[in-house]
Amino acid sequence: MSNFEAFFDYIQEISGKPLSEDDEQLLMAHFKPKKFRKRQYFLQEGDVCKYIGFIVKGSARTYTVDDKGHEHILKLSLENWWLADFESFYKLTPSRFNIEALENLEVLQSTNAQIEEFLKDIPAFSAMANVISQNNTIATQKRMQTAMSYTAEERYEDLISNYPQFLQRFPQNMIASYLGLSPETLSRLKKNSSK
Amino acid sequence: MSNFEAFFDYIQEISGKPLSEDDEQLLMAHFKPKKFRKRQYFLQEGDVCKYIGFIVKGSARTYTVDDKGHEHILKLSLENWWLADFESFYKLTPSRFNIEALENLEVLQSTNAQIEEFLKDIPAFSAMANVISQNNTIATQKRMQTAMSYTAEERYEDLISNYPQFLQRFPQNMIASYLGLSPETLSRLKKNSSK
DNA sequence: ACTTTGAATTGACCTATATCAAGCGTATTT
DNA sequence: AAATACGCTTGATATAGGTCAATTCAAAGT
């Protein structure tokens, strides 16, 4: 099934290890294809994040709502990324986040218990998990540094060079929220930087 | 050696698995005790972070210097925490960070290559690594959310409730930098919140 | 086709926080 | 003990970015 081909390629590429026939059978048996329509929620605040999803197609945003009712986007996700609130997923505690499909979304999803099995039984999967966790540590640290040390304009420039796809795929107000800016500020900032 | 006792306890507690005699011998053979005096650097910008250190005693800060020459503290570290720039450590690339001892510092340190061995050979060590990586993911996500959604004052309150030790161990200007504030702002903020 | 909704832009104004500067007290250094 | 440096506070001022409101335009729903 073509859904899974991209998934298998991804695992092998990231992990640097091959998947056997059996491995692939096992993954297919326990990763369920699931579709979400635009605006639908993969996860809602207060719920436990029971599933982790691998995005086959589409996009999503992870956001919180603060006391004043303002939304803050923490993550924007595209194809070949994992979708979950990891805190809730690992600890099975209620999530503080919402994960909403921004375009029609297709994922392959599985549960925490299943993932534990894969980690034990599939060397490529376990190697992948380690690489992802490293990358994740690095990326979050970078983002934190960027948020602390750079001005709004520098953060926008940084986004353009690191994730140019974002500009194509996400509306500007989402990008603004992801950068920690009001939509107005981002709009003005673009006008000035083009001069 | 009492240095190692605390280290072994830590590994077993975090991982939930026991260390055998052999495991402990192996760790002692390849984790080297190292001391740094206050103000000494564990890592300097531009160098590769060859070692990861487990803090037995003392404290340190991880910071960058931006284009305008301003320092930004990304991490404040105390006993039973790991000390490294993980990006540089994993990838063996030059670091953008400085890690400086804020008090006299005692660590147990080892290299990337050795850590790989431990992960393979010591189940408790590998389990610990997974837990730490999960915790780390969760903590950074939380910090990111806090930085984005909260005002300076709320971030300070948050720090007080999550890391009360910090107030005892770190000077106020370091705390300010960690919170992304100028020392003046933090000073004023304390005055107002006590009212 | 008509209506509604929502994204983007622009202007006027406001506020949180930074910056600059001075003064004070307490560690550190010599 | 004197000298120096450094951390903290306080005041005056500057500024980046937020908020509120109005307008335009395009997309989506009926």
From TrEMBL, chains A, B:
Domain of life: Bacteria
Species: Mucilaginibacter dorajii
Cyclic nucleotide-binding domain ranges (all copies): 34-120
Lineage: Bacteria, Pseudomonadati, Bacteroidota, Sphingobacteriia, Sphingobacteriales
Protein name: Crp/Fnr family transcriptional regulator
Pfam family, one: cNMP_binding
